[in-house]
Specification:
With 403 residues, the protein is of the alpha+beta class. The protein is 16% helix and 38% strand. The protein is built from three helices and 25 strands. Strands 1-9-8-3-4-5 form a six-stranded mixed sheet, covered by helices on one side. Strands 11-19-20-23-22 form a five-stranded mixed sheet, with no helix packed on it. Strands 10-12-16-15 form a four-stranded antiparallel sheet, with no helix packed on it. The longest helix has 39 residues. The chain is elongated. The termini are far apart. The N terminus and C terminus are likely disordered.
Length: 403
């Protein structure tokens, strides 16, 4: 039965509300009723858009109606009943009424009712769950660099989630185990603040490590909201002495460089020679030890102590000064070996050329006719012709002589 139209929209809405209230209190349930409306529960994040759809299997020309959580009529068929621009009509047919609610707020959560004004009025309910989107997590505890071997406690906090978010810790791509999340409800608001703590005992390998706190929540895709911070670790230097050249030669200038890999970089260097004093011509210059002119008396083990305020470390290098004449002799020997190899190759090539030449000269002018085939062993040309295969003794016209 169709609901009669009224000249006044206000009167129509009021009468519908009365009928709807009566239907609600009647608690009538219809099984396998083609006129019974069907809806579905929906979940939406704050700021998003939710679609509410109500359908019936058959139509008797009665109108469908959507009402909000306060039982205010939103749409009656194609007619808007509540002046809220966030609510828009999506479709209206004899068997379906679909509306959208945009810019959803937490207050929009609750139970919405779809009604069809038959006799009696039939209803269906859809629960809209609104997710509170958590804020970007904030990490604290990185105020100062941490000495090697020390401990640091980091705290990650995210606000405004509903239901409460879960916080996850990562070092690079490796997930770390923090303390259980602390969940605190917000006064006068259905959202929650969540915090988590992570304690690390750091080593020098943790310097510049990327520590991440990520929010896990049904309103977010994985990795949508995270905060990253670089961990700074203070540690004493690792010292290594690097020579200017691998072949220091007597009489040349030369220097050693002290490399101290630490955090912070070393600021103080001290050079010394093991079991003795530094040579007179060796001048310390910060991270460098410079030799104005190398001498074999400079041979020995040199030490460098580097200090960065966190600690100090020592490196060593054994200096062996090379005799320049020995270096030249060695170089001359190398050139002699190379020259000898080249000479052997040239000699072999010459021998091959000589053999090839003799072979060509030996066979120059050799000419065998068909008649003389097989007569190579004859003592002279006449006999060869006579003995040739198919030859005739009297065939003077077939004789051939070589000059």
């Amino acid at each position: 039965m169709a609901f009669p139209s009224a000249p006044s929209a206000l009167w129509s809405v009021s009468l519908l509300t009365v009928l709807f209230a009566a239907a609600v209190h009647s608690n009538i349930v219809y099984d396998d009723d083609p006129l019974q409306p069907v809806t579905s529960d929906e979940t939406v994040s704050v700021g998003g858009t939710v679609t509410l759809t109500c359908r019936v299997a058959e139509s008797d020309n009665s109108s469908l109606q959507w009402s909000n959580t306060a039982q205010q009529t939103l749409y009656f068929g194609e007619k808007r009943a509540l002046r809220d621009n966030r609510i828009q009509l999506r479709s209206s047919t004899a068997t379906e009424l679909s509306i959208t609610i945009g810019e959803v707020q937490l207050a929009d959560e609750g139970e919405y009712t779809c009604s069809i004004f038959t006799m009696p009025v039939r209803t269906a309910r859809a629960t809209v769950t609104v997710l509170g989107v958590p804020g970007k997590p904030q990490i604290s505890g990185f105020e100062n660099a941490v000495p090697e071997g020390g401990k640091v406690t980091l705290t990650c906090t995210s606000t405004g989630s509903k239901p409460p978010a879960r916080l996850r810790w990562y070092r690079g791509d490796q997930e770390l185990e923090g303390r259980p999340d602390v969940v605190e409800p917000v006064a006068g608001d259905p959202t929650y603040n969540v915090s988590s703590e992570l304690t690390l005992e750091v080593s020098r390998s943790d310097d510049n490590a990327l520590i991440t706190c990520a929010v896990d929540h049904p309103s977010l895709a994985p990795g949508d909201k995270r905060s990253e911070h670089v961990l700074r670790v203070l540690y004493s230097p690792n010292v290594m002495i690097v020579p200017e050249s691998d072949l220091p030669r007597e009489g040349e200038k030369f220097h050693l460089q002290c490399l101290g890999n630490g955090n912070p970089e070393p600021t103080a260097y001290m050079w010394e020679k093991k079991d003795g004093e530094l040579p007179p011509l060796a001048k310390p210059d910060g991270a460098y030890l410079r030799f104005e002119m190398l001498n074999k008396s400079d041979n020995g083990v040199y030490l460098c102590n580097a200090d960065n305020g966190i600690g100090n470390s020592q490196g060593e290098y054994t200096l062996l000064v090379q005799d320049p004449t020995a270096m030249s002799t060695s170089s001359g020997v190398d050139h002699a070996v190379i020259g000898g190899v080249v000479a052997v190759i040239v000699f072999i090539l010459l021998c091959l050329l000589i053999v090839l030449g003799r072979y060509l000269i030996r066979h120059k002018g050799t000419y065998l006719t068909h008649e003389a085939k097989g007569s190579d062993d004859a003592p002279d040309a006449d006999t060869a012709i006579i003995n040739a295969e198919g030859g005739h003794s009297g065939a003077e016209d077939k004789k051939e002589y070589f000059i």
